[in-house]
Amino acid sequence: MVEATRGVKAVKVSGTAKESDWVTVPNVMYYDLYVNGERIAELRAMPFALQELAIGYLLANAYVEEPHLIETVSVKADRIDVYADSEFEFRYQYFKEKGIKPIESVKIERITSNYQVTRQKIYEKLALAEERAVLSKEIPGTNFAFIADYNGYFFLAEDVYPDSAFYKALGRAVSQNFDFRRSMVVLSDVLFPEFVVFSAYMGIPLAGSLRGVPSLSVDISETISGQTVFYTTPKDLIVLSNPQRII
User: Fold this and answer.
1) Burial 38-53 (b: 16+ CB within 10 A, else e)
2) DSSP summary character for residue 21
3) In sequence order, what are the residues at sequence separation of 6 or more whose Cβ sits closer than 8 angstroms to the Cβ of residue 39?
4) 3-state class (DSSP) for residue 124
5) Residue 187 buriedness (CB in 10 A; 0-12 / 13-18 / 19+)
6) Domain that holds residue 202
7) Spatial separation of the C-alpha atoms in residues 185 and 171, rounded to whole Å
8) Does a structural domain hold residue 39?
9) In this structure, are strands 143-149 and 154-159 parallel, antiparallel, or unpaired?
10) Closest by Cα among 112, 128, 134, 143 to 209
11) Residue 37: inside a domain, yes or no?
12) In 3-state terms, what secondary structure has residue 129?
């Protein structure tokens, strides 16, 4: 099994001094994803939680609507094989191959959930994430994503790639009785438009970031998905769309 990190030789430069040392860096791998023998995509990720990665990818990218149709997930070397029920049919969504724009072509059911959460609760979940995100604290270049719902479920995942951290967290959540319609997702990285679309497709009403939100993400949440989009600062919660869900 490939380790999540490895040591490499480095030279530390401090002022005019140079010192040889070992540092820890994250490992990244590429995996071919197959469903019932058909190659679907190439996934990139740190080499752990790969079953969750595959499940989260298939759900968020609209390849499959119901997780129960996925029967088994097998990981071997650089390949992930998913076996699905005979009723499994690939669903096509515009954003999988053609991207986000024009946003009018992204077909997502508008979220009307009246789920509300307090600013205090968001910061409590964020503090829990930062406590549990060991790699993100110790290894430069890693990110985390977490999904939490009103029942108290909390699923966190880490990876070099923020999309893979998101997929892993999502894959963990679907293994439980998770209520996406009354939940929030927060990323330590930028809330790129793709994450707004992915989370909207899953029905998640609140999506946040620690590093900011681009304008296209705001546009999607306002005109297409109906989500509440926000980012955090040490003192303030900056809500950019649909603020009625923050109380």
Assistant:
1) eebbebebbbbbbbbb
2) E
3) 32, 33
4) helix
5) buried
6) 119-245
7) 13
8) no
9) antiparallel
10) 143
11) no
12) helix
> Does 216 fall in a domain?
yes
Burial class of 93 by CB neighbour count within 10 A (0 to 12, 13 to 18, 19+): middle
Q: How many domains does the chain have?
A: 1
Q: Write the DSSP string, 147-161.
A: EEETTS-EEEEEESS
- Whether residue 207 lies inside any domain: the answer is yes
Token pair belonging to 230: 């926000």
> Which one, of 245, 242, 147, 141, lies nearest residue 195 by Cα?
147
Tens digit of pLDDT per residue, the chain (247 long)? 689 999 999 999 988 899 999 999 999 999 999 999 989 899 999 999 999 999 999 999 888 878 888 999 999 999 999 998 876 666 655 566 667 778 877 888 999 999 999 999 999 999 999 999 999 999 999 999 999 999 899 999 999 999 999 999 999 999 887 999 999 999 999 999 999 999 999 999 999 999 999 999 999 999 999 999 999 998 899 999 999 999 9
Decide: pTM greater than 0.85: yes
Q: What is the pLDDT of residue 98?
A: 61
**How many CB atoms lie under 10 A from the CB of residue 36?**
14
Q: 67: which 2 tokens? A: 């997780």
pLDDT tens readout for residues 117-167: 999 999 999 999 999 999 999 999 999 999 999 989 999 999 999 999 999
Q: Is 58 left (phi over 0), alpha (psi -120 to 50) or beta?
A: alpha
CATH number at residue 220: 3.40.140.10
